[in-house]
Write a structure and sequence with these properties.
The chain contains 13 helices and 7 strands. The strands form 2 sheets. The chain has a 5-stranded mixed beta sheet with strand order 3-2-1-4-5.
């Protein structure tokens, strides 16, 4: 096996080939482009695999390699500390080290979607980015009124219907009013963008049947359904529900030495967007009409005396596991199936 380490940049690609004996058999720098990359890779005898770190070019590299029948493994740079924290750090040296880590089996692969699924994930990510922008603009708008001693609570300051009332409060502050008008313009523009993206999301979501199935689960609305689908990408990337929980920041990571476990904590390296979607869905489920997750929460808190925050964590884990199981097995939601009580975990 030839292990091809690649350090990718917008202008150049640095390659280093490590053979089965751990020797560097070939090194080269080529221009970043499909033709030069594929020509060099194909000059290396089979069997061969290419390894690169996660970065802005990762998806393009993966799609290119898939198109030409080459195997590319995208690795987690957080695990490759030998590279990142080295005193001697150059592109070609980084490529060598990637090849050596791959040969030793010390690589953690990062899953990347390609094709239409990748574009859908980008669309969902764009929606959440626009929501963050809208929140930032709203905060800026209220802050501007408060800076001039004007109380600003509620939602009326955002909508066009009540803007004349708010303009009158700034009659003596013409320059400030002009600034506020610009902030309102930003807010209107952002809202229009959100609506356009949301329309595209509804259209594209029809290509992914799991989204419709997710929406049948208590607490799961359209936004959380598409978010969970886009972030997880496929259930097959996770070997079991425990891995899903850890990826969502809801699972327990154990640390030990020998046969002794000395630490059990919630995972700190997780996808924050997935955790928010799972927790907000859980809150909606336990606060809604009678359903299996609400019953689970009430049983834990009222019958077993579990603290509310721990019970909520358990229910969120059960809900996420249910979605994973449905998707993995191609099943629809069954309201008669009660969730198995997951282990009650501490958030400390």
């Amino acid at each position: 096996m030839n292990y091809i380490g690649m350090d990718a940049h917008i202008a150049t690609l640095d390659f280093a080939v490590i053979n089965e004996r751990g020797k560097i058999s070939k090194e080269r720098t080529v221009k970043t482009g499909v033709k030069d990359m594929i020509e060099y890779v194909r000059s290396i005898p089979k069997p061969r695999k290419i390894y690169t770190e996660e970065g802005s070019l990762a998806t393009w590299l993966l799609e290119t390699c898939n198109e030409f029948g080459e195997t590319l493994i995208i690795t987690d740079p957080k695990r490759n500390k030998w590279i990142g924290k080295s005193e001697q750090k150059y592109d070609r040296i980084d490529a060598r080290k990637l090849g050596e880590l791959a040969r030793g089996g010390y690589i953690k692969e990062i899953y990347h979607a390609v094709g239409k699924r990748k574009r859908f994930c980008e669309l969902v990510s764009a929606y959440h980015d626009m929501i963050k922008s809208q929140t930032r603009i709203k905060n800026k708008l209220k802050a501007k009124f408060r800076q001039h001693g004007i109380r600003c609570s509620g939602e009326t300051v955002y909508g066009a219907k009540h803007r004349d009332q708010w303009r009158k409060k700034l009659d003596k502050e013409e320059l400030v009013l002009n600034i506020v008008e610009e902030i309102w313009h930003q807010l209107d523009s952002t809202r229009s963008s959100i609506n356009r993206i949301l329309k595209l999301m509804r259209k594209e979501s029809k290509n992914y049947p799991e989204i419709k199935n997710f929406q049948a689960v208590p607490g799961i609305g359209f936004i959380n359904a598409v978010t969970i689908s886009a972030i997880m990408k496929t259930p097959n990337r996770f070997s079991n529900k425990k891995k899903v929980r850890i990826y969502a920041g809801l699972g327990i990571v154990e640390r030990g030495s020998g046969e002794k476990i000395y630490s059990k904590k919630l995972s700190k390296d997780y996808n924050r967007m997935l955790k928010r979607a799972a927790k907000s869905s859980m809150e909606a489920a336990i606060g809604g009409k009678d359903n299996q997750f609400r019953r689970q929460y009430l049983k834990l808190t009222l019958e077993k005396g579990v603290l509310p925050h721990r019970a909520k964590l358990t229910v969120a884990r059960s809900l996420l596991a249910a979605l994973y199981g449905m998707w993995k097995n191609g099943e629809k939601y069954d309201p008669t199936r009660n969730p198995k009580n997951a282990d009650i975990q501490s958030e400390s």
